[in-house]
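Continuing from the previous page of notes. For each protein in this section, the sequence appears first, followed by its structure tokens. Read the first protein now.
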Amino acid sequence: MNPDDLRKKLEIKSDPIVHVASDPLTKKNIKLSVSNHITLNRAVTFFNKEPETIEWIRGFNEYSIFYDIGANIGVFSLFAAVIKNCKVFSFEPNALNFGELVKNVNLNNTLNIIPYCIGLSDTTEITKLFLRDLTTGSSGHSIKNSVDYSLNPVQRLNSQGILSITLDDLTQNWKLPQPEHVKIDVDGIEHKIIEGASHLLSTKTLKSILIELNINKVQHRKIIQKMEENNFWYDSKAIETRRKDKGFNKGEANYIFSRGY
């Protein structure tokens, strides 16, 4: 393709596409950049893809401290910041998703979201993020080891360097404020993040955690046990209503753990 044709394509591509999602209750608007079919889907399904997550965030007290781990392009970070005025710390290690996250934060002029391009795990180290693909808004990437959704080894050609850190190091050694609410959506290493959060789980500051778990995974059943040991409870009946009963993620559901005191 000659340079003039490339310039014409760049001019067309440079026109920003923004979807405005309006909260049906507060009528507040949230702007989301649309760069491909994945980010478009995330934008237009804002309020109906995970209604339990939306309702969980609605229940936060205003100005709560919220950690969004696996923030992707920032849908739930933005909802917490715009609707509940939360102080949000968004963690997204994928550089492509992180760029879109930063763009969305600035589109909404939200000063109460701080995005970090780092990963959470059970160790603090410089490591790799193995990328399932190079599409902005995609998921299913893995820290340190190249594995699929079921934690089986797979060969992936694409990767990037990242800093991996534990939640305990983040709050104790790096002095980030302790969260009142945490969302963990990381497609496979949820158990490692919980293993690196023993001190945080014992603090009374932490009120609730939402984790995407699959009861077919031994590691995830251990998470439930550890949460119960730390005096967190969950509504088993509500979880069963949203548990996936088919597909590659059969058995998966969002668990919302709340402090038992």
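Done with the first. The second protein uses the same format. Note its length before scrolling.
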Amino acid sequence: MNARLRGLVYGAIGLVLGLLFSVLVSMALGAFTSLGALGFSKILLSSLMSKDTWISALPYFVPIAASASSLALAYRAGFITIGAEGQVMLGAVAAYWLLYYVIEHGSIAAIMVAILFAGLVGALYGGLVGGLRVGLGVNEILSSLMLNYIAIGIVNYLVAGPWQQGGYTRTAPLPANMGIGLSVAVLVVVIAGLLLELFIVFTKYGVAIDSVRLARKAAQTYGVGIASTIIIVALIQGFVAGIGGGVLLLQLLRQLRSVGLGGWGYGYMGILAAWLGGLRPLGALAASLLIAVLYSMRSTLQLYGVSDSFVLALEAIIVLSVLAFTTLSIRRGEK
């Protein structure tokens, strides 16, 4: 078994062990709720095993997975951007503008163009972060965070100004024929993640990306362009995140509404999923599904009287357990 495959196998083992451990801990902590350990365990297990829980998680999976798989690529190059949140939002804005104000009809071709245009806008926003890093030496964490706030400001300006519909800070909904089904939305982001995985594994750019982070001096010695690699990674990352925003609009949102300073949160959840997935696009897809399920379960558990803060604590335990067991398993496989 080669090292790459061994790492994937051990990572999968760590994922399973982490989930089992975290579920057991969560069941034990149920004693601190009004339901008691037994009652809480029944609700937790029934929620996890319910088909409805997983189906209801899929709309959230779409933007989280697009963010996570693209950020996994960026982080492999040592380009630690947190700008997926803003790219997702502007991707949604771009898709809405093109369909509602320019194309004004919902053919398959129009929807495909809108999704690609959303990706292009996301790529430009991501490329701006990369350009500031390469050209001016601006820290990408700081610049991407500030650009997230600018994206939030753009959305709030549009829904409270030129695009406002009625007396509320929101736009008119897209017509019924301007949308895609849930299965199509999931398929789009899964294909994007698979293509990113293939890009890393089977192209010379994948090697260059890893070398920029792990052995920068060696990469420069062998002619790898550090600046050009960062720009390429920034553009690809923004493109995929922007597609996630366009697909989110067409499948779930259907219209734009005002948002708080935290944004929608999908891009930030993507950061966690990227690291949880071992900085592999495929791993990020799996981690995104886990996070989406946990996010979806919050409302279910609250219906039974479990406080939101307790649910958040359980989610943190699950994520940390999975991360710890996965990391230990991967390291064991590398020895």
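What the second structure shows: The radius of gyration is 21 Å. The chain has one domain: 59-293. We return to this in next week's lecture.
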